[in-house]
Amino acid sequence: MQMYPFSTMDEMRKRENYTQETIGEGFPIIAMSYKDGIALVTKSNAVMKKISGLGQGIALGIVGVYYHIMGIRELLNRLSRKNRMSLEKGQQISLMELLDSEDGLLSVMGKEYYENIWGIPFQVDVILAEARESKNSFYRVDFRGLPYTKEGFIVCGGTEREDGEGTRQKIERHIHEKTNGDFSSLTLDDAFRLSIDAFRDSLDIRGDLLNRDHGEVLHVGILEREKELRAPNDGEMKGFYQYLETD
Predict the structure, then answer these.
(1) Per-residue DSSP letters for 121-136?
(2) Count of domains in the chain?
(3) C-alpha–C-alpha distance, residues 150 and 41, integer Å
(4) Element (DSSP H or E) covering residue 221
(5) Is residue 149 part of a domain?
(6) What is the Cα gyration radius of the chain?
(7) Residue 50 domain-assigned?
(8) pLDDT < 50: residue spans in the chain
């Protein structure tokens, strides 16, 4: 009887490559500081909700497979409700409790990746953005449950390559070059325009950013300090769409 070698590392590598390719097919999300808070910008079809709030001063963005997005969003909403009930009145929910608690995001996603060799991990890339009076904080958690943090902005979704030319890497480089790390003077409109310019330049988009034949819509979340995530008002959205229509 012929035996075929089995390598756990090979299987994990195949699964990792497949997951990275799947996530890379989704349109990225940029979360960027501006002088009054944080703007989150992306596009999707009209059904998929990639940006949502998690209490005062905290927002969530997810790129990936739809039913995995739903699962991670429900997990974080449940943790958010649990923390709000356990905190003393007037206290704010802790972002670290969502990330690094026993049943937090890092633990749940890491367990699914490292302990379930035969299954598919959560095929998502997740960002959590926190807008406080003291500072803005940005965290990204990849499908392995590994955390990353950046100052001023963060990107999830897109691709990453060893030569530095992945789409997420290009978006990050574009924003670094345009801001030199200083976001303190940006208006909401500035942050939106810089996000759109980074998408167009890094993803080589010519013409309309939105494929209306495929039902694509613009998604923008506005996270003002210590407040719940809100959608743009009519005036803000009108200005955003006007900029989209410029080449």
Answers:
(1) PP-EEEEEEEE-SS-E
(2) 1
(3) 17
(4) strand 216-224
(5) yes
(6) 19
(7) yes
(8) 1, 3-4
